[in-house]
Amino acid sequence: MEEQVCWDFDPESSVFDRDRHIFYLEMMYQMLPSAYQGQEINRLTLAYFVVSGLDILRAIDRIDKEVVINWVLSLQAHPKNDSTLENGRFYGFHGSRSSQFQSNDNGAAIPNGSHLASTYCALAILKTVGYDLSLMDSELLLKSMKNLQQTDGCMLAMYYCLCPDMKTLLALLTCETDYFQICTVLLAARVYTGTSFCSYDKGRISFMPIHIGGEADLRFVFCAAAICSMLKNWSGMDLEKAKDYIINCQSYDGGFGLSPGSESHVDYELKKYVIEGFSPVLYSILIFVTLMDGNCFSVAGGATYCAVASLKLMGFLEEDLLSRSASCHVINVPLLLDWTLQKQAQDGGFQGRANKPADTCYAFWIGGVLRILQADKFIDESALRGFLLTCQSEYGGFSKFPRLLPDLYHSYYGFCAFSLLKEPGLNSLCIELGITVVAAIGL
Ligand SMILES: [Zn+2]
Questions:
Q1: Is 269 exposed, middle or buried (0-12, 13-18, 19+ CB in 10 A)?
Q2: Rounded Cα–Cα distance for residues 439 and 52 (Å)
Q3: Cα-to-centroid distance, 4 and ligand 1 (Å)
Q4: Ligand 1 geometric centre to CA of 134 (Å)
Q5: Which of 22, 66, 242, 294 has its CA 20 to 30 A from that of 322?
Q6: Which residues are paired to 275 by β-bridges?
Q7: What CATH number is attached to the domain comprising 48?
Q8: Separation of alpha carbons 326 and 56, rounded Å
Q9: CA-to-CA distance for 205 and 189, rounded, in angstroms?
Q10: How far is the CA of 298 from the centre of ligand 1 (A)?
């Protein structure tokens, strides 16, 4: 008799359903559902969730490693000639095939769209499938990455130019239905507005701008630190400057904001701007609103995790953090510990900010910080486990909140959380790199 693919599912289950999760990730490896179409330019990030997720579940053998290595390496950005090295551009990894397009039918040129987050994900995948990173040409990557570091120590997400030529942008935006044209528009939108979050759905382009100009905050300091750490070469960033930037991001309450002076959080509310029929007028309004709203702009990401993990990778956090006196540390550890521990909510899950509902991904963002601080013994583990199981999906994977459909992002951080909780049958995590210990060491 053939093996049954669908299992009975008990929503009140107290079991981490490893086989179901492997099945879910294998499905995502074969083909992503259409709902992910708008995230085309973040394809490397989605692949990272799948590949590293399978590694956590000890099922990395389910994918063809050679195919994955060749695909990831094909996304590396290369300059046309040496003279372009001095133009300030970044030669890391493109987020997807579509962002490698050089020009569209109208002859409009697309700038090099390689991005720090895509580069981090590319290297994380390569390490996870056992590729020897010393075989890769990383000299230009690191040299050009240094161009992204700002005078205050922060890193820009990517080289960007703020709409230098409106005619070019409009030429790019004359598309309607062709899929690759849509991808081109998304890339153009990203490059010209400097925002990481843009998507296209039913004729509407959505932007979630974080800063005016290019994005630069703790998330990209973390990406740069992880890239240097994985390449075992720290020439790509000024460590002292980056450390100072991180220290300046610690808030009065002990947590970290994404930039100095902003509220400490692990996840801001997303404020979404939808532009229909994209026009220069609306573009101006977008810029104006961005300027007016300043720091209130939102992001998704664990600022506190990015800060602590970066300091750990850069060697600025001691091993026995809690047993040393507070004055020994570059950051205020007791205050950070206090803020972090207060984020475990009544239902057992972790919340990103006070008074927000608990959400699967924070079990990693906050739980990971507590592990790095060697304070995870203070987590109510059985309550956290109970909350996470209410987000376990009958299709495999995890949802953000209980009883919703699963998504790759929350599934991955759900697996990470169960690894942190030492679930049997899972590989343990190198928290600060966001991959398994096996992948990090390169066994
Ligand atoms: Zn979340």
A1: middle
A2: 9
A3: 32
A4: 34
A5: 242
A6: 205
A7: 1.50.10.20
A8: 34
A9: 9
A10: 14
Please report whether residue 422 resides in a domain.
no
CA distance 305 to 433: 11
Instruction: Please tell me the distance between residue 266's alpha carbon and the centre of ligand 1 in angstroms.
Output: 9
Using only the alpha carbons of the chain, give its radius of gyration: 21
Report the number of distinct structural domains present in the chain: 1
Q: Which residues contact 82 (CB under 8 A, 6 or more apart)?
A: none
Fill in the amino acid letter for 80: K
The rounded Å distance from CA 362 to ligand 1 centre is: 6
> Is 416 part of any domain?
no
CA of 214 to the centre of ligand 1 (A): 24
Residue type, 153: G
Give the pair of three-digit tokens for residue 150.
Answer: 């700002």
pLDDT level of residue 55 (50, 70, 90 thresholds):
very high
For residues 301, 303, 308 and 309, what is the CA-based torsion angle, rounded to 10 degrees?
A: 30
Domain housing 233:
18-325
- Residue 257 CA to residue 250 CA, distance in Å, equals 6
Residues 97 and 16: their CA atoms lie apart, in Å, by 35
Distance, CA 296 to ligand 1 centroid (Å)?
19
pLDDT digits (tens, 9 = 90+) for 154-210: 998 887 654 444 444 444 444 444 555 555 555 555 555 555 545 555 555 554 444
Residue 66 to residue 55: CA distance in whole angstroms: 16
Q: Answer whether residue 255 is part of any domain.
A: yes
Across residues 67-92, what is the average pLDDT? 82
Ligand 1 center from residue 117 Cα (angstroms): 18
Structure tokens at 41: 């330019």
End-to-end CA distance of the chain: 38
CA contacts within 13 A on the Cβ side of 366: 33
* Tokens representing residue 327 in the block: 């004055």
Residue 428 located in a structural domain? no
